[in-house]
Amino acid sequence: MLVLRxxxxxxxxxxxxxxxxxxxxxxxxxVLLYGITATDAPTFLVATLLFTAGAFITTLIPARRAAxxxxxxxxxxx
Length: 78
Description:
Number of helices: 4
Radius of gyration: 18 Å
Structural class: mainly alpha
Strand content: under 5%
Distance between the termini: 21 Å
Largest sheet: none
Order of helices and strands: HHHH
């Protein structure tokens, strides 16, 4: 659970930083876009959900592996 929580905390930090950065650069972004505005809410929502889901899945794999490990075996290995 600790691995999953730390991974998702990093993901949340990255998503918030990315959204703030893209909102600050709307004038630069608007030149490159065709058909949508630089602050299109559905686009931000879909991108955020896709990145968060991808990060959750890639964080879940090591979290499940760590949860299956016996703590006494891990301590003896050190």
